[in-house]
Amino acid sequence: MTASLGQQSPDDRLSRAELAAKYGLSQSGARPGLFEYVRQLWNRRHFILAFSQAKLTAQYSQAKLGQLWQVATPLLNAAVYFFIFGLLLGGRGGMGNDMYVPFLVTGVFVFTFTQSSVMAGVRSISGNLGLVRALHFPRASLPISFSLQQLQQLLFSMIVLVAILVGFGHYPDLSWLLLLPALALQFVFNVGLSMIMARLGSKTPDLAQLMPFILRTWMYASGVMFPLAPMLAKAHAPAWLADVLQANPAAVYMDLMRYALIDGITQHNPMPPHVWALAVGWAVLIGVIGFVYFWKAEERYGRG
Amino acid sequence: MAETPLNQTRIPTVIADELHIVYRVNGAKSGKGSATAALSRILKRGEERGVRKVHAVRGVSFTAYRGEAIGLIGSNGSGKSTLLRAIAGLLPAERGKVYTDGQPSLLGVNAALMNDLTGERNVILGGLAMGMSREQIRARYQDIVDFSGINEKGDFITLPMRTYSSGMAARLRFSIAAAKDHDVLMIDEALATGDRAFQKRSEARIRELRKEAGTVFLVSHNNKSIRDTCDRVLWLERGELRMDGPTDEVLKEYEKFTGK
């Protein structure tokens, strides 16, 4: 250009694209390949973890009781549902308190894990546009980070859960170890779902207003506060409906968690056949679809 | 370019090829933004009605070379910041392409920091957000804190950032952002933060970063700082590249244009 006045360089005859190719320049803002994308994400694992922990800490840092709310919030939630469904509406399906309270609290915590991952996922891009527009990182870091924040929140809730279980006479045994694969599968499912919601929410932020209603419907349809199969049988619902509702991912993960933690729960809340296969299937299906779907729009997040 | 030997071939680091950037703003067309207007927008889909387009950059082409410091000038809203974001790959191009050597970065980390966290944790979070490794951050941590001067008046780095004065927070933000080395560095004006002593320190740090970086872009309304730091200037007006050349020539025309 101006600085090379009078000087002829072989580069001058090249088009800009050819010049870029000659010096190995890459297109800025282009979407990386799927495997390259996974590699970039892996390189950002420390950021993903630090960001989720920072969000978790910042959440209650203004409150007087501080991090105590991490445990108090899920406990209060469970108390409200116990009051409504356990005492007022009688949805306990013949379970005594020693069964019903652990059944309810496990269900609430497990469903809340998925529910809040989805809600955080919807806002993960649209609510962090400043970050997306200022810094360069694989955008999937955000939905993954928010799901990870919810996982850590769930681990706090587990402290409450263990206290309740022991309080009602369910002592730790080997079957509690089943919790780990069940949680891992649910986490993969949640990440996939929140990545789908993140892409949808980045285009249509209005989803954040709509989602609470959809999630509440999902909660009632998954048997969080009542045993699904006996309730449906009592209401003379068709068998296929019971099968469909019991095979839905939220119900599957709740059933597994209850089965792992509460002795003898299957008498009151029978598990659908092939429950582990369903759990793995949902995790792989939604995990893969969510990741690929999110990656497909990688270069478009933050526009407008 | 004075230092570059004449016979050496110049290595391009950033190439913009007929670049167009268009912003889409939701619901800005119908003046009132009432519920009925929103409803009619949804019903009359098709041709993206109700979405207003802002054509911020129109067909800009240039090639930047290693070792150059390039100033971007132009009146407010002429598309300077938008162009920087597009070079950094943060805004997608409507048409045209940007080719770059490595990953260009904007100097700035504000969006990643959280006011409710301590300065200490923000240093780590900001470093990770910029893509530094934990080891790199650990190695530079003390430098960042010393540079910001946060701890000059007591142990403030262990307090949440919301307790800082605005000057202190701005100093810490700059210190974190300036801790990383970049191949292609882009600086969007507003560097004049903090008190006089800190301004001097940050100007020195910018000069250092320039030396380490392959190519530097500087957006500024201050013609003196452009003259001090840049050897080439791009002048943008209404999204179009009006002039591209050595600093003195372009600034002379620009000053004539702005009527100084």
TrEMBL record, chain A:
Kindly list the organism's lineage: Bacteria, Bacillati, Actinomycetota, Actinomycetes, Kitasatosporales
Primary subcellular site in the record, as a coarse category: membrane
Parts of the chain that traverse the membrane: 68-88, 100-122, 154-171, 177-201, 213-233, 275-295
* A GO cellular-component term linked to this record: plasma membrane
Instruction: Please verify whether the record's keywords include Transmembrane.
Output: yes
Q: Which domain of life is it from?
A: Bacteria
ABC transmembrane type-2 domain: from which residue to which, for each copy?
65-297
**Compartment list:** Cell inner membrane; Cell membrane
Please give the biological process terms from Gene Ontology that the record holds.
lipopolysaccharide transport
Please give one Gene Ontology molecular function term for this protein. Answer: ABC-type transporter activity
This protein's UniProt keywords: Cell inner membrane, Cell membrane, Membrane, Transmembrane, Transmembrane helix, Transport
Protein name in the entry: Transport permease protein
Its family remark reads:
Belongs to the ABC-2 integral membrane protein family.
Membrane topology term reads:
Multi-pass membrane protein
Coiled-coil ranges per UniProt: none
UniProtKB/TrEMBL annotation, chain B:
Sorted keywords for this record are:
ATP-binding, Nucleotide-binding, Transport
Gene3D superfamilies xref list: P-loop containing nucleotide triphosphate hydrolases
User: Would the keyword Nucleotide-binding be found if you checked this record's keyword annotation?
Assistant: yes
**PROSITE patterns reported in the protein's UniProt record:** ABC_TRANSPORTER_1, ABC_TRANSPORTER_2
Which CDD domains does its entry note? ABC_KpsT_Wzt
Q: Which InterPro entries match?
A: AAA+_ATPase, ABC_transporter-like_ATP-bd, ABC_transporter-like_CS, ABC_transpr_TagH-like, Bact_Polysacc_Export_ATP-bd, P-loop_NTPase
Q: Name one GO molecular function term.
A: ATP binding
Q: Which SMART domains match?
A: AAA (SM00382)
Q: Identify the residues that the record assigns to the ABC transporter domain, covering every copy.
A: 37-258
- What GO cellular-component annotations does this UniProt entry give? membrane
Q: Which family does it belong to?
A: Belongs to the ABC transporter superfamily.
Q: What is this protein called?
A: Teichoic acid transport system ATP-binding protein
- The record lists the organism as Streptomyces indicus
